[in-house]
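Journal club prep — side note

Before the paper discussion, L.F. wants everyone to see what a predicted structure for a comparable chain looks like in token form. Sequence:
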Amino acid sequence: MSSLEERDVGVAAAPGSSSAGLGVGAVGAALEAVAGVAAMQEEVGIRREGPESDPDEPPKKRVKIPEGEAGKLEERLYSVLCCTVCLDLPKASVYQCTNGHLMCAGCFIHLLADSRLKEEQATCPNCRCEISKNLCCRNLAVEKAVSELPTDCTFCLKQFPRSSLERHQKEECQDRVTQCKYKRIGCPWQGPFHELPAHESECSHPTKTGTELMGILGEMDQSHRRDMQLYNSIFSLLCYEKIGFTEVQFRPYRTDDFITRLYYETPRFTVLNQTWVLKARVNDSERNPNLSCKRTLSFQLILKSKVNSALECSFLLLKGPYDDVRIKPVIHHHSFSNDTNETEYVPLPISDSVECNKLLAAKNINLRLFIFQIQK
């Protein structure tokens, strides 16, 4: 046996011995610790993975990995760096409690929103220490480490670092789903990118008659007009003589019922020389919104001043100056009087439950209100 083989055997037999060196011993101890954590994670048995439309949304459950793959370095790191709630690798920001337990952004926000709905203090699911946006901080080292771990492309199933996967799937993958360039004139084809040249060379839409194309373009024009109608309405409102806006802050309260319900209300504010109040409720005030996966917010505008004649107004809510929640503007109309001083509850136009959780997780909800008085 050569001296090189003898050194290899010595290192394998006694990684912590003096002959192997201090560095090798430290590495061996670290690998043993990683393997121990991996064994604990395997006892849990459930993981989650898969691409999501929103990076803050908790991913779907992932099946337990086969026994033969448990020894791979990537899988051991997966067990160490995964979120303690969903057991998946974080796709965006990573937060940690004061004891260092990791949570992905979606699970962290969901925990804060649940505690708000149940009127409890949010706690870490591992050590039960208190968590909040002030007590928890982001772990940039874990975020960078996760971005370098390999993951499978959704289309070609090849492995790439997570940091470069998005660019590969959008620009480089030959199996990515793409659409025909004649989609603008009604071609419905979509398929792998490598089949696109062959399809476009045989596509029948460029040879359609003008009459056939006019029917297709008419349907597309209707969809475009619906999208533009909202923006044209907003521009029309900006021409009104009396326009007012203000930043409003919804604060959480509880009803005095036997079973209390969470609702939000703003302090009184003045716009257009009138006093107003905004109220909001979760899931239309259902009994236990914390048990529901789908969450919505609805609001109403209340006129607190006394008026001599009807006050016809248009109004809309937008996100506040420093918030990142996505709100699609919707214009509402109401004629206020002393008898009809409250609007009906209307949905806050947020895109999904993830955006609703972002609002519920905050201590207060900050939005911007516009009111346009219609002159007769």
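L.F.'s comment for the group: The longest strand covers residues 242-254. Keep this in mind when we get to the figures.
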